[in-house]
Design goal:
Radius of gyration of chain B: 28 Å
Shape of chain B: flat
Order of helices and strands of chain A: HHHHHH
Strand content of chain B: under 5%
CATH architecture of chain A: Up-down Bundle
Helix content of chain A: over 70%
Number of strands of chain A: 0
Number of helices of chain A: 6
CATH superfamily of chain A: Cytochrome c oxidase, subunit III, four-helix bundle
Oligomer: heterodimer
Number of domains of chain A: 1
Largest sheet of chain B: none
Chain lengths: 204, 143
């Protein structure tokens, strides 16, 4: 009886402490994301300063294929939606829904990275490599840093899929999935800046 | 980032879905408009630039509101404070860097030819090594 009473009183406190821990971890991660925003701001500023320094090499108009960029953008945007649907699955305690939408998100993100690597490969093959001009140094630094973040997100996602399969939606796994979702949505926000300032502005 | 309250499906779950779908639809619209403006060249370049920047800003706000659930509620106050602080830093960093570098560019790179007479030391240094070569070329021609 006394054990039951103790459990009765202990549970809400424990739960509150646990949800506080999850909220604190999410807030700490939010601060990291904001610091990453400052890093990207520096890269955006560098790119814009160098964006007309072609050194006689190819310009944005020569290199940018807007329908291709539009397809990349749509892949990333759809992956943001499917990531949101995975979060809804987590909130519903449905490991199946969470895992399914995470796999969709992973494949869309992989498609995005594949398109980006293909674009970089093509550029380097025609001589538009990072060493060609200030514009291209700035371009590759900014766009590839975003791409590296997406790649890191994909690795994280694969790890979380394994954790869902092995552990199920435990409190810790759900807390990590919450932060993964924040990271993925943040990457889409950075991409909005990239396609606007690098691709659209470069093609005007 | 509504981490505290996992809604147990049903009504809350459906409104969560509606929220993501609304955000997605708005984001698609705010992506299609700037791409169409640039591809079809409907506006003058300056107006196009202004329009795509406005669309990007609007889309970022849509992502924050509908995907990251950032709003003015008490639960989101500290997240919002961090965003506003970062926005200030980002604005100072980017606009400051761009202002300084374009100002420097305008002052050093695009001077009219007459400015050379005013004696910019940089210009003088750059032209000096060229002179012996010209002299040599002239000497060859004379020879």
């Amino acid at each position: 009886m006394s054990v039951e009473v103790a459990r009765h009183f202990a549970t809400p406190l424990e739960e509150r402490a646990r949800s506080d821990a999850v909220a604190n971890a999410a807030y700490g991660f939010w601060i990291y994301i904001m610091s990453d925003c400052v890093l990207f701001a520096a890269l955006f500023a560098t790119f814009i300063v160098l964006s007309r320094n072609y050194a006689g090499g190819p310009t944005g108009k020569n290199l940018i294929d807007l329908p291709y960029t539009f397809a990349e953008t749509m892949l990333l945007l759809c992956s943001s939606l499917s990531c949101g649907l995975a979060t809804l699955g987590v909130n519903r305690h449905s490991a199946r829904q969470a895992a399914l939408w995470l796999i969709v998100t992973f494949l869309l993100g992989l498609g995005f990275i594949g398109m980006e690597v293909n674009e970089f490969r093509h550029m380097v093959l025609i001589g538009a490599d990072p060493e060609r001009s200030g514009f291209l140094s700035g371009f590759f630094t900014l766009v590839a840093t975003h791409g590296a973040h997406v790649g890191a997100g994909l690795i994280w996602m694969a790890v979380m899929l394994a954790q869902i399969a092995a552990k199920g939606l435990t409190v810790r796994v759900r807390s990590r999935l919450l932060r993964l979702g924040m990271f993925w949505h943040f990457l889409d926000i950075i991409w909005v800046g990239v396609f606007t300032l690098v691709y659209l502005r470069g093609a005007i | 980032m509504k981490q505290g309250a996992p809604d147990a499906g049903g009504e809350a779950g459906r409104s969560g879905l509606a929220r993501y779908l609304t955000g997605f639809t708005l984001a698609v619209v705010l992506t299609v408009i700037p791409f169409a403006l640039v591809i079809d060249r409907m506006l003058a370049p300056a107006a196009t630039l202004a329009a795509i920047l406005a669309a990007a800003l609007a889309q970022i706000l849509v992502h924050l509101r509908y995907f990251l659930h950032l709003d003015r509620s008490a639960a989101e106050r500290w997240n919002l404070a961090a965003v506003l602080f970062t926005a200030a830093i980002v604005t100072v960093l980017t606009s400051g860097a761009i202002w300084i570098m374009f100002n420097l560019h305008a002052r050093t790179m695009e001077r009219p030819a007459t400015a050379m007479m005013a004696g910019s030391p940089k210009r003088a240094m750059r032209t000096t090594p060229a002179r012996p070569a010209q002299d040599a070329a002239a000497a060859l021609r004379r020879a």
